[in-house]
Amino acid sequence: MSVSQADPVPHRMAIVLCTVCATLMQALDQTIANVALPYMQGSLSASYDEITWVLTSYITAAAIMTAPVGWLAARFGRKYLYITCLIGFTATSVLCGAAQSLSQVVIFRILQGMFGAALVPLSQSTMMDIYPMEKRGQAMAIWGMGVMIGPILGPTLGGYLTSLYNWRFVFYINIPFGILATVGLILFMPRSHPNFNMKFDWIGFAVLSLGIGSLQLMLDRGGDQDWFTSREIVIEAVLGGLGVYLFIVHMLTAQRPFIPPAMFANGNFSAGAAMMFAAGTILVSSSSLMAPWLQNLANYPVETAGLIMAPRGIGTMGAMLIGGRLTAKVDPRKLMACGIIMLIVSIWEMTGWTPDVAQSRIVATIVFQGMGLGFLFIPLQVIAFATLAPQYRTDGASLFSLSRNIGAAIGVSVTSFMLSHNTQTLHAEIGASVTPFNRALQDGGVVERFWNPMTHHGAALLDRVVNHQAQIVAFVDDYRMMVFTTMPALALLLLMRRPRSAATRSKPEDAHAAMD
Question: What CA–CA distance (Å, rounded) separates 411 from 5?
């Protein structure tokens, strides 16, 4: 399906519109549900760490299904796979919105992630095929708009949909995008030619899926099951470790593993994959913590919370544009160090937040944080892929996406568990001093009249205040933990080498592939 100037693709702009719609739809779903989580939590009678399964189930399923996308496209044809994934993603979005229980939402989000994993890679490869080589930079700029605008619009759109209607419409919004993209691709996308002789490393894929799925289930369920006192958690830990071990052994010994081990001989790429994992742990977990902090502690309306969260995406987009220009002139490691330090400073600033913090301070901090992510991502793509052999670029892009998604899922699971656990612990510690013998509750004034622990109403109000204070400190502890887990990423820069100037000017499509 390659294209030259002498053989232009009919209806190119219609295909572009459809691929951008598909990319925007998938990108929106990464952030649009964040501000709706507190409302979903109440509607589905779930705890905070349970409602985050809505995020982790989608991310984990997308991470696992990223690996076979290239093989599936070659085996069954890109057009047919693309249309199937769009229909499946749209249908599962409807099922997510109609779900009546947490278990239903999680199951449908897993299916949504499985179908959604292919949308971005297929959109990107389609854009590259319908434009000639000399216009691919322009094509990637058009396609990149959907990638960058999605996370910016997600929180704001999610906030307004939840406020005007309810949380179910954050999933229903995919219906018009999905229908438009599907119909357009059926009518205008050139027919692809399946290769039914293609073979895939199903053993490697199966053991990797077993390892990732079991470990993620252990992290999600560990808090509820009291960790390794539960037989379920022990079994999941054993299966997870076994799956990862078998995958490594298979990758090193199989004749044609789906992740070539020769890629890891490149120091820049190996350190870059580790850096992408570290960045992934911050990318989603920071925004998943922000939504309940704004709504539950700072008492912002859901639509205002969405507006406050949007500037982080603007900061990321601006820094990516600046970083993309500076990377060819400045050592990419310096830009990455700048981005990591900006992340650390912004998260440390969040450890000092209380519900009374000024809105302008919140916006400035998250814009600064978004800029840190932007300055990290673009140079990371360049330095990791500049010295990687061309035949490994597609596999390397898939591995980068896998590393980022696994990091995101683990980051959300760990921060949500720590928030829930620390809130309960701090509630017990603070509550221990709230007794009828506490002199602060014996002043005979307003405190004793409204917060008298001897009355049912007073005890309920006191418990609410204690829980509020415990949550404030628990959020601070989470942000402090994120600071100390981000710092080691600076050490990875020591393992990287600056690429030669010719290599530094890598193809734009390679950088975008690695990022998505």
Answer: 46
